[in-house]
Write a structure and sequence with these properties.
The protein is α+β, with helices and mostly antiparallel strands and 328 residues long. It folds into two domains: 143 residues, Mog1/PsbP, alpha/beta/alpha sandwich (Protein Transport Mog1p, Chain A); 161 residues, Protein Transport Mog1p, Chain A (3-Layer(aba) Sandwich), CATH 3.40.1000. The chain has six helices and 19 strands. Strand 1 and strand 2 form a beta hairpin. It is globular.
Amino acid sequence: MKKGAKLPGLKPIGWQGIELEVPVDWDLVMESGGRDEGLMGFTSPFSKFELKWEKPRKKKVFSIDTVAENFANKLQKADKKLKILKEGDMKAFNHKALFFNFQTGHEGYGITWYCDQEEKFFIGLFAFRPDEHEKSKIILENLLSSLKCHPSNNWNTWALFDFSFKTPSDFKVENRKFLLGFVTLALSKIESHPICSEKTEVFFQYWSPANVKFKGEYKDLEKWFEQHYARDFKKRHKGKMRIGEFQDLRINGHKAKTFTSTTKQGPLLSQILGKNNTYLWHCPKSNRIYALTLSKSVSKEIKFVSKKEYETFPSEVFGEILSSVKCH
């Protein structure tokens, strides 16, 4: 499969250690699973693309040729009219990949490859209308040339719905909710030690359209926090809470507010202590209010260890996460 023209109008996607660029009119319609096994799917008015990944269950008998053959057989079993027009090999982020071009009521490509760094195989399916063959071929070439199936450094990009930010690659999805006008994405890293456990979290949300949902309050972020966010914020960060004063800053060129809060939960000799940096801002271009909380909590037996010995707030890492945020 030869490289063709560069396609204009692309947007970045970053999810579960995977990065790629897709046309701006593609919508994310399906997402499930996690880092080791999962899938995501996109649709447009004339095409669809699905990408699935998982770790082989039996490494000794694993073969990418077998995966490709089983994939083609599965498609033909589901559609008796499906014909394989062409087969070949190519590269997917420097990995050997196998592809086949098929035709039935629609046309499409199947692509499979194995990523030795992530130790998992990938299966891609791109289907489109036959009269869109040339345009779709360019789309697929650009998609595959932009694709990264493992991080090139120790940071993952999380990019969906025209926002993006980066985290260290050992952060995992703890919770996500994708609704029209409301998105929640929670990522965390948990470290267990003999006498304590630490949890570092990135909690990201947005609401839109801000000027409709919140009327005049979206312009006053402190007022917005008190009337629309404080209750959920305190419910999520349980225990006795202290909230510091709001400070001004800028994020992506927008006026923003930030504050630090601390929490204590549990009996005196066995507490969960937390510290949170929260950032609020309104993005006029996307007409969204964004809320980002970077936090660390520690569960420990206080009688066995001093505060200085167990608690180190990752200010440098959190600074890099904040500076990577793009909201439009």
